[in-house]
Amino acid sequence: MSTTSFNGSTVNHQTFVLIGIPGMQERNSWVAFPLCVLYILTLFGNLTILFVIKTEQSLHEPMYIFLSILSCSDLGLAMSTMPTMLGVYWFDAREISFTACLTQMYFIHMFQCIESAILVAMAVDRFIAIRDPLRYTSLLPNTVIVKIGIVILSRAFCLLLPFPFLIKRLPFCRSNVLSHSYCLHPDMMHLACADITVNILYGLIIVVSTLGLDVVVILVSYVLILQTVLRIASHTERLKALNTCVSHVCAILIFYIPMIGVTVVHRFGRHLSPIVHVMMANVYITVPPVLNPIVYSVKTKQIRQRICKMFQ
Questions:
Q1: Other residues' Cβ atoms within 10 Å of the Cβ of residue 208
Q2: Model confidence, pTM
């Protein structure tokens, strides 16, 4: 709960208000059904990936272990946001408590930070597999994978832990209506009636030190991968090596393109309809978790074959 005195009166914001389609609440149900389908597909797709990797001994390799962590992150993001979004669009349950909003905000940013770090780990994994295939499994044994996983989780947990406390210290004496159907740190802090410089600076530091650094490492990894592939004499072997990276490149594009799109629309699309902003924000949250398992199921032969056997 946030309490403050403003113009001689005390204002308590025990809840925030989430929005669906601005000015078109009667059409929210049109969005609810596609969202529900996406939620079901997300749960089914990622749980299937986890089941296949767990039960298929041949998939107990670094690449697939990283993929299972990616699926866990996608499941966490979906379960942190989709129920709230469905409540807004289907049942017009737009109020969310201050504490619940803080909690959701933290988990959204944490799972996105985890996903970005997993994409980095997968890029390095592809580089090692192509650069030194004979020593691939010895360079990335299970003990190393576990340590990488702990580092990824610790980084996200520790770096994003201050976010709820930075928001909780702020007084909220203006509107309590958020811009989306879920809670984000930038959205919440802009409703405060106090100096938010600390929030802005810390948010910028987090973006640069996580997403910004991750993009650099991924780009460097793929430059090294291309250099390695170009040294391979056989054209067939070159294509085979590059083909092992296709799924990962798709996952990178699925993660970063919606994020860039939301940023561009937010910065330069103020003249656009609010519906565009809402739809872009929904795509940014809902699409990556549902597309990742589809991409890996279609483009990874071992997973595709195992799934086909399951449904025969």
A1: 10
A2: 0.90
